[in-house]
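Q: Given only this backbone (954 positions), what sequence would you predict?
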């Protein structure tokens, strides 16, 4: 459009020049001269004129007319462009050379040449001129146009581009893409083109549209030059006053044409894209004379095209739809298949898990049967402050852990260890607990259990056993979770078994045993090694617990009393071994069977390299004690794994405490802890080696501590008789043995109230009171009757051989409960309180208490009681029981003693009958008396049971 505007502007100026503008006239003349020169040059070049004087290089108008007047140059040029176009040129003799003087020929002959030329030019559709234009005063400009058109035609022929037909004129640069394509445009190609255009212009383009559009490949380009020529041609003969009107009309026309062509161009592109058939194109060309028709046609074509496109789109949509349907179908089939596959896999997986679970159970059973110490390994995560760091743990599986070793430990730099279970750094407290839950639960079934945490300092023992410093529900350690679980089971079994649960908490600090549930923690305790069916227990406070909050409270108190110090490795390093002992006693409400279990939960102090932990002073002393006791534990383990007959349990308080747990009385689990740091690899390897040795120790199957009601009653009667007899005989050793019984403090929910010395009374004092009250004459008769039977049968050890692993003296236990109720114990604390110092008496002291003479005396006076079956500790505790009971009665509950007595009478009779009727029992009662060592060593085994009852740990 810019181009057209420029051309028209120029045309206006050009036309406007006729209004008297000299400059324009001069410019017009100049332009005409340039064009003439261009035409003459081309002709000279084409026909080979080198120095023809009648057609100079830059001819004037007249020279131009004269030079071409004979038509020979024109015809020759035409023949050059289109050979043979004019077969005969008048005046040319034998060659195409122009005759030196054209005047020799007559005007008629020359006219012949010009006529032939014009006819051919017309046939070519190029602009022509009149013969008169070659005369002086004729319009030489037409001849120039014609020649330049021929030149353009020739050039386009040469280049093979028909489209580039220029009609001469000054070349102006083309605006890229802004040229139009015309085909045989009437306005330009017909011989009447000029006239038509003129008419159309003059009529205000009321007539036929002469500028036709064609899109065929043979179209010509219209450039600004062409347009300029066209406009000039149109305006050539116009009066100056007509020119603005014509230009305006032309401008409108050009704009319309431009718009139409622009639209058509786009359409053409679309059509091209959609492969319009040649036929459609032809029909378009044929019918396209009228712009409206063309437009209509194009609209129709467009519509058809769009219709086709829509159709095509519809087709595509429907094919996509059907494709989607197929895909959907395909996917749903795939999903179904996948579902089935998943189902099979999940079945297989659950089957696999079942098998795994089964395997685990079987494995545990084998472990139980073999009595192996179970070993679980736990890896502590890196601590938040550690800029870590390389881990020494090279790999972990369900049961195997591989450690990167310093070269001295393994050739390939890795060493693997296998345990019952390995817990990685990400294992939660719940996961850890759930794996050991069945073991813990077996306490309620009458088994002894010992779980101890071992590992170098800072490796996470306290975390596993108790939890972190700040406790949350998730982070509660094994101790809390274990008791919580026991309480849950206790509640679940309420209707069938009546459980009593109580706890003790001690620490071994610098080889001294301390009661953590006592505020002072100063009282030094002894660990009672029962060496028989129970676990070695300290004679520390035993506190009944009924809920987790009780335990939390107690343990908080215990932890407060525990020795903790800061070292370079752990800012809260436990400087002592702590042991939470849980006592469980259950009575089957239907059968009367008593189950008794005991569980040690031990958090050992960590082994440490004093150079690393950088300890000095007290810390160093503690570390030395810790290392010494752990090395004693190592000796015990080494001895056990080598199946030595002598096991050095007595080398430390720790091994004394664990003696029963490591000696076959318990199901034992060691939790070995390791730190992940690479620089701890040395300690880790030695810890794991130790743990492997522990895992190899076979203790034999642990037994259930269960006793039937009848046997229990028998034992109760025997115990009471024995006690009464002993009391009656007033042996001084009874007093001694009473003094040696464990210190028993009553603490309610952490409110430890140890009895003051003022409250304490020697038991023998009240005991002497009780002797007269405890048995009625009828009881005494009954007792004598039983004694007689037992003596007659010379029975002893009977109960032990009846496989009664642990004995609770019913008189002290159940009778207390029945006759006196719990309140009684609250009141009786002070009475039961013993001299704290007695606990510190050396073991030899206890050994001495039963001199051979005394022993024989006991054996004489009591042999026929058959008490030895319960172990000599029973005799000690029996006395305590009597004393205690006497004490209780002396405290003002004598009335209720009647019911107690009744029970004794009844059970005595029953037992008598049983004893006389049962050959098996009688036979068992004949088992020889146990040796003195057994007696003496176990006389310190008496202890108070959870409810304040007094029992004997065996
Ligand atoms: N599994 C764990 N997850 C998160 N933190 C842990 C874990 N185990 C231990 N820790 C953290 O590591 C630090 C040391 O743990 P802990 O005191 O239990 O070690 P320890 O073996 O009892 O040490 P020591 O023998 O010196 O008493 C503590 O800050 C503890 O909270």
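A: Predicted residues:
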């Amino acid at each position: 459009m810019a181009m057209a505007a420029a051309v028209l502007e120029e045309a206006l100026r050009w036309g406007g020049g006729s209004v008297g503008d000299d400059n324009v006239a001069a410019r017009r003349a100049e332009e005409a001269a340039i064009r003439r020169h261009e035409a003459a040059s081309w002709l000279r070049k084409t026909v080979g004129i080198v120095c023809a004087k009648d057609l100079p290089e830059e001819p004037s108008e007249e020279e131009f007319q004269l030079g071409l007047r004979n038509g020979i140059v024109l015809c020759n040029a035409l023949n050059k462009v289109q050979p043979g176009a004019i077969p005969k040129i008048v005046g040319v003799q034998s060659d195409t050379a122009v005759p030196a003087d054209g005047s020799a020929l007559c005007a008629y002959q020359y006219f012949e040449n010009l006529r032939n030329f014009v006819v051919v030019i017309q046939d070519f559709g190029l602009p022509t001129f009149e013969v008169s234009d070659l005369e002086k005063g004729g319009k030489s400009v037409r001849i120039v146009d014609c020649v330049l058109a021929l030149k353009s035609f020739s050039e386009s022929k040469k280049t093979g581009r028909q489209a580039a037909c220029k009609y001469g004129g000054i070349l102006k640069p083309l605006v890229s893409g802004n040229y139009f394509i015309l085909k045989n445009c009437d306005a330009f190609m017909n011989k009447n083109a000029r006239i038509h255009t003129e008419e159309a212009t003059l009529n205000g383009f009321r007539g036929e549209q002469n500028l036709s559009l064609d899109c065929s490949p043979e179209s010509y380009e219209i450039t600004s030059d062409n347009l300029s020529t066209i406009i000039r041609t149109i305006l050539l003969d116009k009066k100056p006053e007509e020119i603005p009107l014509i230009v305006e009309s032309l401008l409108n026309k050009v704009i319309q044409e431009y718009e139409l062509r622009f639209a058509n161009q786009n359409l053409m592109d679309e059509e091209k894209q959609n492969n319009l058939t040649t036929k459609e194109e032809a029909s378009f060309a044929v019918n396209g004379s009228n712009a409206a028709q063309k437009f209509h046609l194009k609209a129709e074509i467009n519509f058809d095209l769009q219709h086709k496109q829509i159709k095509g789109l519809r087709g595509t949509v429907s094919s996509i739809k059907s494709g989607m349907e197929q895909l959907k179908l395909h996917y749903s089939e795939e999903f179904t298949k996948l579902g089935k596959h998943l189902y099979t896999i999940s079945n297989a997986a659950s089957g696999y898990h079942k098998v795994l679970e089964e395997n685990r159970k079987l494995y545990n059973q084998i472990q139980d049967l073999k009595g192996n110490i179970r070993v679980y390994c736990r890896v502590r995560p890196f601590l938040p402050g550690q800029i870590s760091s390389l881990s020494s743990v090279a790999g972990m599986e369900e049961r195997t852990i591989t450690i990167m070793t310093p070269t001295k430990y393994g050739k390939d730099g890795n060493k693997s260890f296998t345990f019952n279970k390995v817990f990685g750094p990400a294992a939660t407290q719940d996961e850890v607990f759930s794996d050991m839950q069945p073991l813990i639960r077996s306490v309620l079934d009458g088994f002894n259990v010992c779980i101890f945490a071992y590992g170098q300092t800072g490796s996470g023992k306290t975390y596993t056993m108790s939890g972190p410093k700040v406790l949350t529900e998730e982070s509660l350690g094994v101790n809390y979770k274990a008791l919580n679980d026991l309480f849950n089971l206790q509640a679940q079994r309420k209707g069938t078994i009546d459980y009593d649960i109580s706890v003790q908490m001690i620490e071994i600090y610098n080889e001294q045993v301390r009661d953590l549930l006592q505020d002072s923690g100063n009282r030094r305790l002894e660990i009672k090694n029962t060496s028989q069916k129970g676990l070695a227990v300290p004679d520390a406070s035993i506190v009944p617990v009924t809920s987790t909050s009780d335990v939390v409270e107690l343990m908080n108190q215990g932890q407060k009393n525990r020795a903790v110090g800061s070292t370079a490795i752990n800012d809260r390093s436990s400087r002592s071994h702590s042991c939470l002992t849980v006592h469980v006693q259950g009575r089957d409400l239907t059968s009367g069977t008593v189950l008794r279990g005991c569980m040690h939960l031990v958090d050992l102090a960590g082994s440490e390299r004093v150079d690393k932990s950088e300890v000095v002073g007290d810390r160093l002393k503690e570390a030395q004690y810790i290392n010494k006791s752990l090395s004693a534990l190592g000796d015990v383990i080494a001895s056990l794994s080598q199946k030595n007959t002598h096991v050095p349990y007595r080398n430390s308080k720790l091994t004394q405490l664990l003696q029963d747990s490591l000696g076959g009385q318990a199901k034992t689990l060691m939790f070995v802890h390791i730190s992940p740091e690479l620089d701890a690899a040395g300690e880790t390897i030695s810890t794991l080696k130790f743990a492997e040795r522990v895992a190899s120790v076979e203790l034999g199957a642990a037994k259930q501590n269960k006793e039937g009601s009848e046997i229990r009653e028998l034992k109760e009667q025997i115990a009471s008789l024995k006690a009464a007899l002993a009391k009656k005989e007033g042996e001084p050793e009874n007093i001694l043995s009473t003094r040696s019984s464990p210190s028993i403090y009553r603490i309610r929910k952490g409110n430890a109230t140890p009895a003051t010395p003022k409250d304490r009374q020697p038991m023998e004092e009240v005991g002497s009171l009780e002797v007269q009250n405890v048995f009625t004459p009828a009881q005494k008769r009954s007792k004598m009757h039983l004694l007689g039977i037992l003596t007659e049968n010379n029975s002893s050890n009977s109960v032990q051989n009846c496989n009664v692993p642990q004995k609770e003296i019913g008189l002290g236990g159940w009778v207390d409960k029945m006759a006196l109720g719990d309140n009684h114990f609250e009141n009786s604390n002070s009475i039961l309180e013993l001299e704290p110092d007695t606990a510190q008496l050396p073991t030899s002291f206890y050994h001495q208490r039963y001199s051979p003479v005394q022993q024989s005396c006991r054996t004489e006076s009591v042999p026929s009681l058959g008490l030895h079956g319960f172990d000599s500790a029973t005799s000690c505790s029996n006395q305590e029981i009597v004393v205690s009971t006497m004490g209780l009665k002396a405290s003002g509950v004598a009335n209720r003693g009647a019911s107690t007595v009744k029970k004794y009478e009844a059970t005595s009779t029953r037992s008598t009958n049983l004893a006389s009727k049962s050959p098996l029992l009688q036979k068992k009662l004949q088992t020889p008396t146990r040796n003195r060592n057994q007696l003496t060593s176990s006389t310190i085994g008496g202890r108070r049971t959870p409810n304040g009852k007094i029992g004997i740990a065996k």
